[in-house]
Amino acid sequence: MRAFAYSRPASLDEALALLGASARPLAGGTDLLTLMKADLLAPERLVAIAPLLPSGIARDAEGVTIGAATTLADIERDPTLAQRFTALGQAAGVAATPQLRNMATLGGNLLQRPRCWYFRNRLAQCWLKGGTACHAREGENRQHALFGGSGCVAVHPSDLAPALLAFGASARVRGAHGERIVPLEEFFSLPTGERRSETRLRDGELVLQVSMPSYPEETRSLYLKEMDRRAFAFALASVAAVVRVSARQRIGHVRLVLGGVAPIPWRAHGAERVLLGEEADERLIEAAADAAAEGAVPLKGNAFKLPLLKALARRALRSLLL
Amino acid sequence: MKRIEGPEKVTGRAHYACDVRLPGQLYARVLRSPLPHARITRIDAARAERLAGVHAVLSSANAPDISWYEESRLFDRTLRFIGDELAAVAGESEEIAEDALRLIEVDYEALPCAVGLEDGVRGKPQLQRRGDIDNGLREAEVVVDAVYTTQTALHNALEPHGCTAHWEDDSLVLHESTQGIFAVRDEVAEKLGMPKERVRVITQHMGGGFGAKQIAWKHSVIAALLAKRAGRPVQLMLEREAENLAVGNRNATRQRVRLGAKRDGTLCAIDVHILVQSGAYLVGGEDSDVIGAYQTLYRCPHLRAEQVGVRTNTGPAVAFRAPGHAEAIFALESAMDELSRALAMDPIELRLRNYATEDQTKGKPYTSVDSLRRCYGQVKAAFDWPERRMGQGSKKRGIGFAAHDWAGGGGWPPAEARVEVADGAARVVTATQDIGTGTGTALCQIAADELGLPAERVSIVLGDTREGLYSPTSAGSATLATLGPAVRMAAAKAKKSGRGKGSRVKNPKDKSIRTCGAQCVEVEVDTETGEVRVLRVAAAHDCGRVINPVLVESQVIGGITQGLGYALSEERMVDACGLVLNASLEEYKVQTAADGPQLVNATQSMPDWEANATGAKGIGEPPLIPTAAAVANAIFDAIGVRVRDLPCKRERLIG
Amino acid sequence: MSVPLESVTLRVNGAERAVRVEPRRTLLDALRLDLGLTGAKKACDMGNCGACTVLLDGRAVYACLLLAIDCAGREIATVEGLHDDPLQRAFIEADAFQCGFCTPGQIMSLKALFSRTPAPSDEEIVRAVSGNLCRCGAYRNIVRAARIAAGRR
Ligand SMILES: Cc1cc2nc3c(=O)[nH]c(=O)nc-3n(C[C@H](O)[C@H](O)[C@H](O)COP(=O)(O)OP(=O)(O)OC[C@H]3O[C@@H](n4cnc5c(N)ncnc54)[C@H](O)[C@@H]3O)c2cc1C
Ligand code: SF4
Ligand code: FES
Ligand code: FES
What we know:
heterotrimer; A: alpha+beta; Enolase-like, domain 1; four-stranded antiparallel beta sheet; globular; C: alpha+beta; Ubiquitin-like (UB roll); five-stranded mixed beta sheet; 5 helices; 31% helix; binds flavin-adenine dinucleotide; binds iron/sulfur cluster; binds FE2/S2 (inorganic) cluster
């Protein structure tokens, strides 16, 4: 790692005043330090923000608010989340490893960078890092995206993000010029020529907390993840599903978000349309799973993710609806 | 008996090469080639040398001209793979050494490169023949003809390669993470042009090697030169990435296999053509004898086996736990399974019909003629072959079988040991190294047996070339069978006179020694997601007399666990430009605790007194050998998909 | 860029230890190099293996992904702080290691589990060490050792 200065400001305002392109916020450090060790990032200053950020899980009539400094371990073990936001607790529980879950914060989890093996290799100056070409598109791409690949075909690595998106979460964000609330659906955004990043967070802004609206009690949810081994791996594909079946056995609410298959968590709008207002049966679920895979553009090495994705969608829906 | 070094290992008191702390110690880092093939046109380390905290810098510009890897040099002007050594720095900390590397300016002229097994430069074929292959194939009533490929696997011992070097006057002391302290001593002395006696190599504990640490690598000489230049001790441990680029891998292979058999299952022809990826250099010690297993495992009158090494601009291959055999047995035992299907014959029955009682390469009978047959029986009973349970829904279950042999486990001279007895206690003095297999514990037990002492009263000295008692490199699963008899002889003498020296006597002339074994595997394959779960593995291996069942069992479960990684998930990925994409433990997927199946070790003690005076043979490498084939065969049994390319990744099963 | 050394006081195994380090020094390097506590091992330095596992305020963490300076004032426990712990005895009894390089990390991960859950199930045990690779493949015996320490045989 290259040398850097370290600050531990006394207040958030002080922290915000320090932050900028060359001074980065340090939370759990589990992504930031690996990027710096690989010499992909060389900030001149790290600003310790974890002690200053809200931490913990609070529930009120409006819903649930989770502080950005809350660790994945705390999210995994929280009884309220386990009961009412099951998919989120499950997603936290299958992310990374016990040690990493003890260190990693929610805010950092949403802002972690892709695991694309070209991205993580300092010898490859690829498009997402400001270069001209994506090496993965024509290169080795078994882990890469089925959807949303324009400039970059990396997949978003977070397990929590799909679950949070499925619960319609928004982030409270603060910069030197004030606060704003950003729905995660807008927070995550495909990288563009001008913004080579997966989020719309600006340099110098901090995520303070993430909130989910409250859901009627009969709402059910599930997170399923497939990996190359049974632990200690990022998702090859994952599905977060949230559903509510109304009194007349109709599907009154549904959100299906896919992980590991696009540069950002990917909402399966087509599948949701198939399901909404219908009565669930095997045939409907099959149609929804097919719809979830619609629009996929497989690359040379990742076609296997298509059947995988459909199987996950089918399983999640079956388990929640049948 | 428990491992004697247990208390040190569970308290953190066990010191490895990376744990050595000497006064004034510096830390070194190596600059590596960013290109797969290039010539250095300019190298300028002046800025690195001026950096505060830097004490020595070495590169082709100032290093002594030491020849290495056939035609190459310690720091060559031509770089032949991404990761090839280019310069090195010693500084007050690893951080400073790294800062300095970034200040070294290098200009390159890129040269054309070849990365894949099919694209590289082919060497001279190695050919083995027996009988008349054309006749054999003509006689065959059933022929299996298939191409199998195996991937490049990375050792990834948890402790990287590395050492701490310091000079005492004009003598060099190396605390090295190695499987062969004498191999390192001799090689380093030769490279530095010093008499061997002035190099001392110490390895008290080492964090795994699996073959990759059985030779001396450049870092030892680099550390020694840096230490000399700086006048201070230098520790040079490789980073994980360098570990996975530059210090060995299991060679990828492509094997075309033709098996010809009679309707009753009798083999009449084995014909194989094999490509083996050696990487950028022949480093010595690779010994990847892929054609070996084809020649011995089954009785077969007609055989042609050809192996061709292929040079590519990728890191060099080196021995990896049962080199050659693991690759060959995957293909041979998959082909045998295909043959058993073609013949509609139980796979174990097919193996029994072709049982080899003699070493067909030497025309000598085996010392333990029946042991493989007994392994078949033991593993069959332990597994309840061919019992399989039913899967549910999309989850299909299947069972697979594979056998193997291994020529290394019998050991051979030379090796020496001394035993000293006083006050009802004994000390075994050797200069072997314990690489985590429990060698020290087993040698204490051998001495204790001979002396009639409780094993707790016997201690052992090892891991230091200064003892002068020669011990071979821990490789080939040969250590115990090599050194054990010498220790026993020394103990027998010491019993009479209080002190005795023993040496390893020759192996029997008229017989051949082998180790062998068999495994059964049950898998569950999810036909929708392609996930393969290994549910059960049963193993029976012939390692002669089991001196310590605890240690044998650990080798068996460890070997199978690595074998499962080889079967399912481990594969070095290299892109068309020679960039290794998964030189990390995140991307290169070894097994975790959560992946573990139920493991049943059915290995029984089968003393082989004809082999040597301890009756014991090796068990270090063999348990890895048959696992991949047994898994692939079980997958076929489950879902009817024949995986001929390792690893059995899910994209090979669905989509 | 040159950055002055910072004084940091670490509480390691119950004792205050002062070190002077660059901000970029990891907790792992501070333990291994500045304090001579070499039980925690550096095998990947990237949070990919678990060999560097120590406890921070009672929770298992990867010391290679923490800055020493960020750990000031927090409670750090390493394998050197264990004395005749039931887990250590059980590791020997179950032969839960071969080379031993991953062992301190495995033990510390289980230590964190046992302090919360004195009699864990097999599933909890496997989960607790799922972030600790063992290339020697001693997993089955690591689980057995934990079972023994939990009072089950
Ligand atoms: C081996 C390994 C395996 C992993 N496996 C998984 C997995 O399976 N699933 C998964 O979801 N994740 C996985 N992760 C990723 C891990 O969850 C993230 O690294 C972690 O959540 C990041 O949180 P942190 O607090 O450590 O962030 P840091 O590393 O501190 O920060 C990450 C980035 O976010 C910025 N940042 C942090 N907090 C804020 C904030 N509040 N506001 C603004 N910017 C901020 C930092 O400046 C930095 O750019 C894995 C990581 C590793 C190393
Ligand atoms: S997928 Fe994205 S991160 Fe990977 S090489 Fe392409 S542009 Fe870079
Ligand atoms: S050394 Fe820290 S996780 Fe590997
Ligand atoms: S005992 Fe060697 S890595 Fe675990």
